[in-house]
Each structure stands twice: as C-alpha cells, then as structure tokens.
Amino acid sequence: MMELKRCQERALKSVESKAAAAEPHARKKAARILREAAYDVMSADDLCAAVLARSRVTLNFHPDRLIAGGLTVAEGLLRDGEYRSQFETRISSGGLSAYPGGDRDRWERSLFAGAYQAEGAEPCDRPKYGALNVMRYADGASPRFGSCHFRLKAGVLDRCTFTCGDSHAQPEHAGTRKVFMPVLAALLEEVRTTGSALASDVPGAGAFAARCLSAAEPDGKDGLPGPGASGGIGRALDAYVEAQIHGAIRLESDVAALVADPSFQGTATGAQLDALSEAYGIPLYWHPGFRLAAGSVPEDFRGPVMPPLARRVVSSYGTEGASPDAFDAAAIGRAAASLHRQPESWADFGTPDEVLQYLKQLWHVLVRYG
Questions:
Q1: A Pfam family for this UniProt protein (predicted)?
Q2: Pair 104, 224 in one domain
Q3: Rounded to a whole number, what is the largest CA-CA distance in the chain?
C-alpha cells in the first residue's frame, strides 16, 4: 500500500470507524436476509470476503473530452501518467462543483470528517471517484461517467472507501475493504425490497449472491478474466457502489487494464488509447459499445431536447461507415469538441453550459437505450 498523506489517512480512518460501529448490526441483517432467502452456500462474512476478492474498482472516463491547453483527456493521461481528480482537472462527466465551498467540497467534508479541509491538505490530495465493479460489467461499474474505463489492481482496494450509492446523496451506508459488511447488507436489503441492485434484476437475495460470485471467475490475471468473458453490459447509470480512492492513481503501477468503447477504433482517440496502453504497459480491451438511431431517442428520458440533439449529432458528427442515422460515443465526443471550439454554432440549443449538460445527458440516453 502506498504511503498516504495525513489527510488521506484521516479520511480512511473516519469512514472505517463509522463502518466498524455499524458492522455488528449489518452482519445480523445480512445473515437474516440470506437465511430468509434459503441461501446456505456460505455465511454472510464469507460472502462479503468473496465479493471483495472478485471485485475491482473501475474509473469510467471520456477519453476524447478536452482539458486545459486543448489536450484530450487521453493525451493528458499519456503525458502525466496519473489519473487526477476534478479538483485538479476542472472537468467532469457529472456535476462540476469541486472548489472550496462547492457541493463536492461539502459532501467530502461530511463523508470524511473534514479531513480534506484540514490545514495542509491540497487539491491534489483529494480522492478520485470510481465504482466497485461487483457484477464485472464490461462497460464498467459506472458508465454514466464515461465510455471507457480503467480497471484498477486489487491492491488499490486497501485505500478505498465505499458508499452504497453516489456520495452526493450522502448515503447512510459506507465501508472500507476491512469493514465492507454495511455496504453488502445495504445491497442485500435493496434486493429484498425492490428485486434489483447494481442494475441487475434478480428474484431474491440468494440469486443476487450467486450473481455476484459468478460474475467474475478468477483466471490468474489479476484474479479476473478479460472484459467480454462474463458480466455483459450493465448500463448502470445510477445503481453502483461508489469508490473513493485515496492517494495517487498512477497508470504504471495501479491500473490493470484499459477497457474502451469500440467507436474509437481507427480514430485519433483510438491511437491515443493505443499509445497509453503501450507507454504504461496496460492491456487494452474493447467492450461491445453502444449505438442508437436518432429516431429511437425517447422524449421522456432526459427531456424533449434529446431527439433533436441526437439528430444534430448524427447529421454533423456521425461516425463514417456506421449506420447513417445512428450515433455513438465518438460522435458525441466530436460534438463536445465542436462546442468547445465553436460554441456559437450551438446557439440554437442554448448556452455553452446548457449544451454541455445536454450532451452529457445524450450519453446517458445512449447507455440506457443503445
């Protein structure tokens, strides 16, 4: 485990302390739910250990978005060899509120007991956000935030904190690798009451437990098979176990694999991903990807502006050689680059900030229906 700064150690310990206090009750709840489901394959503790042993954190990102200086995210990663937080990059595929007094700053103050607001804490010390890919989905645990993802090595789990749901909602259940039971119990309770968790519909807690274990059969390569071997596409826009990674994320030492959207194959972004893979010795895989006809975009998911926006993206930025009326991740990326370079050409859709938000939402539509 890498040496953490004092603020990062404090953040980890604050979550672990709260999780430890909640653990006895969570263990009883998990055991009761499994017992009611007639699941007798293993105990709640053994299930908890098995889930963590078979799961990895994924960091979803859009490689073609532009950062300061006109570089793409992929070019920035290639240059720096490090995955940085929103407090440093000032870009986001969610809300952009990473500044003192902003929403993210307030969420982190609450979750980590003010560790990152303490004297001496710097923006580069802040946690990076991903999700625990319990179901080993090929599109990552949280595709809402990007078309590609890094799969981190098992050792990174030691410096992660986890919440059952996105931290912006200040979820009640949190944990660490040492004390994960409160998170597992919350997932089992969600399955018991709703029949679904982590974007997976299951008939009960026993089936959910079996699904967790079958999603990632170890094959000797970082304990997990390559993308596509199992897991399938998850489309997990909202249902995930968020992971907050404390300390630096260095591509050469912390990343086990890069999994990319196939729409970037044969493009400049694809070449940048190839270069990233080669430079840092990271295996590059391609997941199945998403494509959607503009005419299939609904008006009741992310709002009525989505269908005309999809038609604009297809007509102006559609992928050459693809279905003439369909768009994909690369097409949305080209539209986002156009917005950055020629914002006036998008005035009929709103201000640059509004259009940027619409393009993020169009990506959600593609993940949901593509």
A1: DUF3626
A2: yes
A3: 62
pTM, 2 dp:
0.94
> Residue type at 286?
W
Three-state SS for 34? helix
What sign for the dihedral angle of Cα 117, 122, 123, 125?
A: negative
User: Rounded to 5 degrees, what are φ and ψ at 283?
Assistant: -60, 135
Residue among 305, 299, 292 at smallest CA distance from 354: 305
pLDDT of residue 227: 54
On the question of pLDDT at 141 being above 60, the answer is yes
Verify that 131 and 234 share a domain, yes or no: yes
Residues 257 and 133 in one domain: yes
> How far is 147 from 323, CA to CA, in rounded Å?
19
Instruction: State yes or no: pLDDT of 28 exceeds 50.
Output: yes
Is residue 322 pLDDT above 90, yes or no? no
Place of tokens 């978005």: 65
| Structural domain span for residue 316 | 291-369
pLDDT digit string, tens, across residues 95-128: 555 567 778 889 999 999 999 999 989 999 999 9
**Beta sheet of 57-61, edge-to-edge order:** 174-176, 160-164, 241-245, 128-132, 57-61, 148-152, 255-260, 284-286
Contact between 151 and 256 (Cβ < 8 Å): yes
Residue whose token pair is 């040492």 = 178
Shared domain check, 273 and 316: no
Spell 59-96 as b/e; 16+ CB within 10 A means b: bbbbbbbbbeeeebbbbbbbeeebbbbbbbbebbbeeb
> Does 1 fall in a domain?
no
Q: Are residues 132 and 281 located together in one domain of the fold? A: yes
Say if CB 237 and CB 94 are below 8 A apart.
no
Q: Which of 239, 258, 286 is the last residue of a domain?
A: 286
Spatial CB neighbours of 133, under 8 Å, sequence gap ≥ 6:
55, 56, 57, 58, 140, 141, 151, 231
Q: What is the number of domains present in the chain?
A: 2
- Average pLDDT of the residues in 66-90: 90
* Domain contains 300: yes
Share of the chain above pLDDT 70, in %: 92
pLDDT of 84 above 60: yes
Residue 344 lies in a domain: yes
